[in-house]
Amino acid sequence: MSQDLTQWIAEVRTLQCQLADARRERDQAHNSAANWRRLYENEARQRRQDAEQFQAEIAQINQRLLDQQRAQLEAQHFVTELGQADSLSGLQDQLSALVQRCQRLTQSLEAERQSHDNTRQALTAALSDTFDILKPERRLSSAVGHS
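User: That's the sequence. What structure does it adopt?
Assistant: Structure tokens below.
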């Protein structure tokens, strides 16, 4: 009977060790899943932000295209008016209007250049921030992969 009891106790201890190992593996799996979920959520958030930013850039490009088309129509209108001018005074008036238009376009171009510089700086900063965020995650994922 004593031998049966010893065998039973040994089997219980073996099962307890197996249970402890299974619990450790389960906890590691939960931790790994939580880590992957966090990485996925960060990546998804970044993709959403990128999509929003690209949509905004598309809207800006569309607006610039409309502005250019409008400017082109105005230029065609001025050319038509120049062809219809019948006096020196009329030509001078049209020239004055063209000079004012040129000044407005120059100001608009300078504003566009400034907007482009601001966008470039913002994108560079966002890219830098993204790399800073991903560095610890890559170290963590490479450390988890080597374990």
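The two ends are 45 Å apart (CA to CA).
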